[in-house]
Hints:
This protein has helices at 3-10, 47-57, 68-96, 125-139, 145-169, 179-199, 236-257, 263-282, 285-291, 302-320, 329-346, 353-356, 358-381, 393-399, 404-424; strands at 209-211, 219-221. By secondary structure, the chain is an all-alpha fold. The chain has one domain (69-424). Strand 1 (209-211) and strand 2 (219-221) form a beta hairpin. It is globular. Residues 1-44 have low confidence and may be disordered.
Amino acid sequence: MNVWQGKGERRGARLCAPLMPPCVQSVGPSVSSPSRPHCGAQQRMLYYLIDYIERLYHPPGFQVIRFITVRAALASITALGIALVAGRSIIDWLQRQQLGERVREGAAAGAVSHGHKAGTPTMGGIIILLSVGGATLLWGAIANTYVWLALAATAGLGALGFLDDYLQTVEGYEQGLRPRDKLLGQVVIGLGVGGVLYFHPDFQAYNTLTFLPFLKGQVVDYDLFRFWDVGMDLGWGVYLPVVVFVMTAVSNAVNLTDGLDGLTTGVTAFVSLGLLALAYISGNVNFATFLNVMYLPGTGELTVFVAAVAASCFGFLWYNGYPATVFMGDTGALALGGAVGATVLMVRKELLLPLLGIVYFAEALSVIVQTSYFKYTRRRTGTGKRVFQMAPLHHHYEALGLHEAKIVTRFWIVTAITVIAALLLLRLR
Length: 429
């Protein structure tokens, strides 16, 4: 059964592929029309100024600001410029404040020692937050629900990471935030994102639906209670935990990946490029119809946000590539995890995450396997054994003798291949 129709019948409206609310009659490939209610009547910080100048003086070329593709390109240029220009000043400030990375040395470092990286400025995620926030606020639809929710998730987890970094580098706490406190913060932010995705009117038509890979025209409905006549809406009881899990898992996985110069930055840049394509396709009725995927009005504006994320990663990579002159810290890692997690949930493609972010998945899985097997063997034999030389996975290859630059490059290549494969799944069904 096509569950799109089942969901629509439950709510008194027929939903079919592509999902098209009444406010959308015809939409061009890349344009948001300000005349359409809800779907395009968003405010942009520069849009009205440019539109006013265009209507008053009619300068050639100003009308292109209406196109999402143009604003996405402008956002990427802006984010890249902010990262490159402001990055140097922020790094110098971090050095003056002596906010350097603390690295375990000797036996505490395990199979791999990064003692030579001690003192490298951390908390560089501030550069990413400024780049993404500045570019999106300038060129994105700031009143669009998708955009402000993505910004809120990114800023919220970035603030949580900043607090963790601050406690480590400034206050001198060895582990920063206690793991349970960090997890609690992630859960709270995840509940906030899930609450908006479920209860906000903009998402009511498809708030528990998600894209199902490999099967043409099919989706998954998280609302297990839709078959029961319980007299009340209980779908949130299933969907909110799903959102919390995705947000928490992705942000932690990105944080675990951040262990080598440029690794997380480059991987997230490629993942963001994939999300850029998914957001554009989902928000474009013509492409959504052609590929037979859910059409989600308003998600096209996420293209601007994700373009800013990708460009900020490339800009930060200028300083974070081997040998790194700055680390993003939890400030950047959790922020990027929030951006990726929130975006993939809003475009209803979270089931593609194991493929789209395969490096994140592998890094997190290696830690889970290593920890579980060590505890199991210690309980059974009294001596803990390990599956990998060291976890997360990138440290395993480092312990085997591979140079970190080679590991990072290969992980980038793997990510690029899997991102392309994830996009091909939209057609090969």
